[in-house]
Amino acid sequence: MLFAYARNAFEYIIKNIKFENDDYILLPDYNCDAVYQPIKKNKINHFFYRIDDYFSPDFQSIFDRAGKNLKAILVVNYFGQPLKINSLKQYCNDNNILLIEDNSHSYGGSHMNQKMGTIGDYGFSSPRKIINTPTGAILYSNNNNLNCKFPIKRAKVEYKKFLLNFATLNNYNLREKVKAYFRQENKFDNPLFPGEPDVDYFLPDLFSEALINMSNWDKISEKRIKNWYKWSIFIKQKKFQIIFDHPLEKSCPWLMPFYIDSPKKRLKLLEISSKNGLGLSTWPTLTNEALQTNNKLLDRWNKLVVINLNHTPSKYNEILFKDI
Ligand SMILES: Cc1ncc(COP(=O)(O)O)c(C=O)c1O
Hints:
Elements: E1 2-3, H1 6-17, E2 24-28, H2 33-41, E3 45-49, H3 59-63, E4 70-76, H4 85-94, E5 98-103, E6 110-111, E7 114-115, E8 122-125, H5 127-131, E9 137-141, H6 159-167, H7 172-182, H8 206-214, H9 217-237, E10 241-242, E11 255-259, H10 263-276, E12 280-281, H11 288-293, H12 296-303, E13 304-308, H13 315-320
Parallel strand pairs: 2-3, 2-4, 4-5, 5-8
Antiparallel strand pairs: 1-9, 6-7, 8-9, 10-11, 11-13, 12-13
This protein binds pyridoxal-5'-phosphate (PLP).
Pyridoxal-5'-phosphate binds next to helix 1 and helix 2.
């Protein structure tokens, strides 16, 4: 089933599950603010479990929150590298809990011969992030019980975005340069910026839908994995901290993460990248609610940088980053 955004697919899932009275969901404490929108909007009871600095779920914090009304757990395949998802699935099966897989970082990837996003009872992915279309998300369910009522308003094609995407279909770096030129501002010291807009339409625009259907996802995955290895060389040369030694062979990661301990270097790197459209950014936009439950989240956010793997590093990058 197609949606405009991953948050729409997630909203559909939580409506379909039908949370009652004291039922609650466990959410990872480190995730994009857009995922919390449907939770707040539908007033779903929720608690957070911890994600460590290597983006692995902390099981103890899940056990601490277990109870008879725990209806579902959301797990994220961070950066297309699903950690402990099979153990979590086993735990959910044994305890009659629904597992919802947030695969927004890896549409098109596979893990142990299974498509990512189809491992949980429900899954949602965000192909729009990988091929950079204005909209496009996908919902998966392992039962045929998708019967909740939902607005079926289609997103309109935004002509400026359409023209830009079309004109630069095979040249992502050029597209990002154009976008960088028109970008108004960035706040690399504010984890609540820019905040994802609440959307009131739910189906993708037709242009995005066509591009998602036409794309060769195996080829896209191969290119992104190659770029991951190329960027790893850059990160090692600069002595920044690698988080994943290598990507899963068949994943299709949206972003590659790494840490920089020096705030000054991080800021410089992000500013240069933003000015030149090189694909480095902060991630994610956090929420106040999550920040209040765990003060370590801010420390992590302040040292994390992610690279959009559409970008292939070039000699030009080396020149731009030579003083860092
Ligand atoms: C892990 C994760 N899940 C969900 C989302 C939200 O996706 P969308 O903007 O398609 O709603 C994001 C956004 O960055 C994300 O990083």
